[in-house]
């Protein structure tokens, strides 16, 4: 059973810290506070978090913020709105970080997603394996544009 | 030569509820959500670090896929927990187990050390079960 695991109580505290980041990613998050709340020294906290999730708490927070930003951009929020909504304080640092992680600037990403969203409505068959589309009877729907 | 698996289907009782489970509880991402006409939708999700694998949340409905009462039989089988669809991997099984449990995910088997590493079993909101595994700790 679980007693194969060393120091189970540590896991609960690390999981709580991760869930705290998931919930409060848009706020100023001070890792000192999280480590204090988890009753760890900052160094010990960072080491355990990295062992558990494969990345440091700071890196994890950055990834959560960028993923939330992607969702907001898909919902047509502006780059500036998105930047502040996910906890960044400067649009240039947001844009730079976004480009480094996603490979596109927030504007380029949004444009690409808008195009995809429009295609999902007008030519969804581009995104569905034909075997399934045929099975569902969707290939007979004349409202869908043919994929060229 | 086959190189990869890029689509796999999970039969679900309700697409909206399944979407909530896979995204808000398991932490998966929506890959494709295409409206396909009244009451129909092509919906796929993917594990956070495997965007190339689309898991289709396939509703069980009468039609070309399920004919002559097969949908009703399939619903019963899914509800009974007949189907195990695969193995998900995580960095740390106990941490993932604690997090999913705190979100209300039901486990059929608690984390246990097996020959190949640690494993637990959880069920989705329809009744399909999955193994959750962690690479062997050195």
UniProtKB/TrEMBL annotation, chain A:
This is Helix-turn-helix transcriptional regulator. Residues 15-112 form the HTH araC/xylS-type domain. It comes from Aequorivita antarctica. InterPro entries: Homeodomain-like_sf, HTH_AraC, HTH_AraC-typ_CS, Tscrpt_reg_AraC-type_HTH. Keywords: DNA-binding, Transcription, Transcription regulation. GO terms for molecular function: DNA-binding transcription factor activity; sequence-specific DNA binding.
UniProtKB/TrEMBL annotation, chain B:
Signal peptide: none annotated. Keywords: Metal-binding. SUPFAM superfamilies: Glyoxalase/Bleomycin resistance protein/Dihydroxybiphenyl dioxygenase. InterPro entries: Glyas_Bleomycin-R_OHBP_Dase, Glyas_Fos-R_dOase_dom, Glyoxalase_1_CS, VOC_core. Residues 4-135 form the VOC domain. Gene3D superfamilies: 2,3-Dihydroxybiphenyl 1,2-Dioxygenase, domain 1. It comes from the Bacteria. It holds the Pfam family Glyoxalase. GO terms for molecular function: lactoylglutathione lyase activity; metal ion binding. This is VOC family protein. It comes from Aequorivita antarctica.
């Amino acid at each position: 059973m679980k007693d194969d695991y060393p120091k189970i109580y540590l896991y609960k505290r690390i999981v709580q810290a991760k869930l705290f980041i998931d919930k409060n990613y848009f706020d100023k998050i001070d890792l000192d506070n999280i480590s204090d709340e988890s009753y760890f020294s900052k160094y010990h906290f960072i080491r355990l978090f990295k062992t558990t999730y494969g990345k440091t708490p700071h890196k994890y927070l950055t990834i959560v913020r960028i993923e939330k930003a992607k969702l907001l951009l898909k919902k047509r929020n502006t780059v500036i709105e998105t930047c502040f909504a996910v906890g960044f304080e400067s649009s240039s640092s947001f844009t730079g970080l976004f480009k480094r992680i996603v490979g596109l600037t927030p504007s380029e990403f949004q444009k690409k997603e808008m195009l995809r969203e429009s295609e999902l409505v007008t030519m969804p068959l581009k995104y569905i394996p034909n075997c399934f589309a045929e099975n569902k009877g969707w290939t007979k729907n004349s409202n869908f544009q043919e994929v060229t | 030569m086959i190189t990869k698996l890029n689509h796999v289907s999970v039969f679900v009782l309700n697409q909206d509820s399944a979407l909530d489970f896979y995204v808000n509880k398991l932490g998966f991402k929506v890959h494709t959500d295409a409206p396909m006409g009244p009451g129909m939708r092509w919906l796929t999700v993917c594990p956070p670090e495997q965007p190339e694998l689309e898991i289709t949340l396939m509703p069980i409905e009468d039609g070309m896929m399920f004919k002559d009462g097969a949908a009703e039989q399939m619903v019963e089988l899914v509800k009974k927990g007949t189907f195990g669809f695969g193995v998900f991997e995580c960095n740390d099984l106990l941490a993932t187990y604690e997090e999913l449990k705190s979100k209300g995910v039901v486990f059929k088997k608690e984390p246990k050390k097996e020959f190949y590493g640690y494993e637990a079993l959880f069920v989705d909101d329809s009744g399909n079960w999955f193994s959750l595994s962690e690479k062997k700790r050195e």
